[in-house]
Every structure is written in C-alpha cells, then in structure tokens.
Amino acid sequence: MAEEVGLGVIGGGLMGREITSAVARWIHLHDLGVTPRVVHVCDVDPEVLRWYERAAPQPTLSTDYHSLLADPAVDAVYCAVPHHLHEQIYLDVLRAGKHLLAEKPFGIDLAAANTIMAEVDARPQQLVRVSSEFPFSPGGQAVWKWIADRAYGELLEVRASFLHSSDLDPEKPINWKRQSQFNGLYGCMGDLGMHALHIPLRAGWMPTTVFALLSNVFAERPDGRGGVAACDTWDNAVLACSLTDGTPLIVETKRIAPGETNTWRIEIDGTEGSIAYSTKYPKTLRRLDYKAGAPQAWSSLDLGSVGAYPSITGAIFETGFSDWLQQMLAAFLDELHGELHQPFTCVTPAEALAAHRIYTAALESRATRSAVTL
Ligand SMILES: NC(=O)c1ccc[n+]([C@@H]2O[C@H](COP(=O)([O-])OP(=O)(O)OC[C@H]3O[C@@H](n4cnc5c(N)ncnc54)[C@H](O)[C@@H]3O)[C@@H](O)[C@H]2O)c1
User: Fold this and answer.
1) CATH 3.40.50.720 residue ranges in the chain?
2) Which of 82, 125, 126, 139 is most deeply packed, by most CB within 10 A?
3) 361 C-alpha to center of ligand 1: Å?
4) CATH number of 135-309+349-373, picked from 3.40.630.30, 3.30.360.10, 1.10.10.60, 3.40.50.720
5) Distance 149 CA to ligand 1 centre (A)
6) Residue 191: CB within 6 Å of ligand 1?
7) What is the pLDDT of residue 68?
8) Contact 65/40 with Cβ under 8 angstroms?
C-alpha cells in the first residue's frame, strides 16, 4: 500500500492548477510507494477556487492560507504565489511544520532568500525543495546523465537559456510578473532564471564573475482597464559568467525572444564531447562525440518518453510540460518518502540561494557596468 501524502496548494492560479492536474493522474507513473492527494487549496480569489470544485476527491477550499496550515490533513505544501509573498508564506509553512515544494525564485530578493534559508536550516527534519521541471524531461535527463558521466572531457563552454516571446506584443496587458513591487527587481531573471540554472548549479558550475546585459524594452503596458501602467521589470537578461577556471557560462533569460514559447535549452561544449537540447525540438537530442583527428559531426537522436521516473507511456512516445512537472513532483515525493528511485533531485534551497547571488550580482553589474566577482 503506497504511503499517502496530503498536499496543500497555496496559490491556485496557473501553477496551482498544473500541480493539481499532475496529482490527479498519479496513476500515470509506475508505483513509487508514495501517492499525493490534494487535500486543501487556498487562494485569496474565490473565483480561482471554483476550478477546484471539479477536482476529485474534493479538496477543502479556503481563502486564508492560515487555515490550510492549520489543517492536519496537509503534510506538504506546494506554494505558487507572486514573489513578494514568498518570504512570509514560506516562513509560515515551515513554522507550521509542513514540508515545502516552493516556487522559484524562493523570495523576492536575496535578503528574503537568506531569511527563508535560515528557517530551512533550523528545520532539517522538513524537506524543502524548489520548483524547476525541465531537467526531469527525457532531454533534460539525457543531458544530466551525460554531464554526470563527464562525457565532455575538458569543459569549453556552457550555455543555458529560458526564453519567452509573448511580451513582444506591446498590447499585452500588464500583470504582476511585469511589476517589480510584486515580481522583484530581478525581473525576468527571478521568473525564468532557475530553469536555466538548475543543471549548471547541480553540476557545480557556480560562476565566480558575472557581467550582465539587461534590457527593459517596454516601459509601459496597457493596464487592462483602458489606461497604461509602468512596466518596470527587466524584460531580457544575458549573463556572461565565468567559472573558477575561467570557463564561460552564458545564461539567457528573456521575455522578448521573438518566436520562442517557453523554450528551455542547454548546450555544453567540451574537448571530448558536446551536447545540445532544446524544448523547441522536444524529441531531438544532439550530440557530438569527438576523438582526436576524427571528423566533428553532430548526430541527432529521437528521444522517447523516458524521463526521471518510469510511466505507462510507451517508450517511443512523446512527453510535454505537464509530464515533466509530474516527474518533478515525483522527485519531491520520492525524496520525502526517503527512498530515492533515481539520484536527480529537485532544486535545493542552497541552489536557489546561489541563483539569488547570481541575479543580485547581475543587478550590480548592470548598475556599475562592470563584471562583478561573487
Ligand atoms: N515552474 C514553472 O514552470 C512556473 C511557471 C509559472 C510560474 N511559476 C512560479 O509560480 C508562482 C506563481 O505563478 P503563477 O504563474 O501560478 O501565478 P498566477 O498569478 O497564475 O497565480 C498566483 C495565484 O496566487 C493567488 N494569491 C495571491 N495572494 C495569495 C495569498 N495571500 N494566498 C493565497 N493565494 C494567493 C492569486 O490569487 C493567484 O491565483 C511564481 O513564483 C512563479 O514564478 C513557475
């Protein structure tokens, strides 16, 4: 009999619905010995909660997250709220004794992340992880295994990107993600950066210097009520970083990358091998294996459905965002259950904090127009 974990969801918007859907089809995965059940959902907006009336079994619905935290049926919390609320809600979740799958960026700024981290450190018996699902995809897992095997020889360069394009439309109404008071001064980095950095940081590729090119393309957007509102977040960020040994790490997070819809891509080049994967071509893994003097030829491999955790999907079939999110949740629960079926875990609080240090250095780099040493 699988252990049941009662999941509370705070923030029932875009990501709250995705996690609830991933739980609803848990039977999709091979038995991990642990089964989540969404037992309580909280959102301040009752209209948002109406969607959850379709969930079966029916979770308790509430508009004050303190009542969710007081609910003994909740063992772990997935929290997907605007960034200015991360610090207080994550602290309250931890103080209520619940495990936490947090959304990135794990606090609106470095000070908030440090405060959350201090609480995490004081509670080693509670599992805290941060969301980033793309590395759990078949492509992400293939890249990770290749890195773990050190198939690159001597590292030449790492490029990691997460790209959106919808903000190219100047008529797109503003939302909290484009306002620094809710999203944070990091702008696109806070929103998108953890996706790009999860694998590099897990590989130990923490930059020692950061030089940032940040752009705010549209300073105003329609406010959705016939007027305009200030859009004061960075739209695009290109970070030219260097690792301890001088190896370049290029991190791109963009809200205005023409034509890109949620493109996660990573390329690693080395003296003995290179690998490249992009969700733009989700089945295609590109690799170049090099032997001295031999031709340098990229090959492409059609990926099937095998990500971090086995599922019912035929091995040659395709997967997508909702599958990768379910795989990430499986990694969280697998770790919580204490019996890891595979070694690649969700982002740790220490990795989220490292990402904050990179974004903070990027802001300083932009302000001083210089490379910043970490
Ligand atoms: N992992 C991913 O791929 C991914 C994708 C998008 C967003 N995110 C992250 O998820 C988080 C939420 O983003 P989203 O896109 O779901 O936003 P969203 O705006 O769709 O949803 C946020 C929800 O939080 C609710 N809320 C606000 N204050 C609240 C409070 N005090 N208590 C309870 N609910 C409250 C809002 O009413 C809203 O429904 C952010 O941290 C964001 O960076 C992650």
Assistant:
1) 3-130
2) 139
3) 26
4) 3.30.360.10
5) 36
6) yes
7) 98
8) no
* Range(s) of the chain covered by CATH 3.30.360.10: 135-309+349-373
Regions of the chain short of the pLDDT cut 70: none
pLDDT value at position 1? 76
Q: For 3-130, CATH number?
A: 3.40.50.720
Ligand 1 proximity of 107 Cβ (cutoff 6 Å): no
Buried b (16+ CB within 10 A) or exposed e, 209-222: bbbbebebebeebe
Q: Is residue 103 within 6 Å of ligand 1 at its C-beta?
A: yes
Say which residue the tokens 């490249």 belong to: 276
Ligand 1 contact via 92 beta carbon (within 6 Å): no
Rounded to 5°, the CA angle 195-198-202 comes to 175
Per-residue pLDDT, 2: 85
Q: Is pTM beyond 0.90 here?
A: yes
Sheet holding 76-79, edge to edge: 60-62, 34-42, 3-10, 76-79, 99-102, 128-130
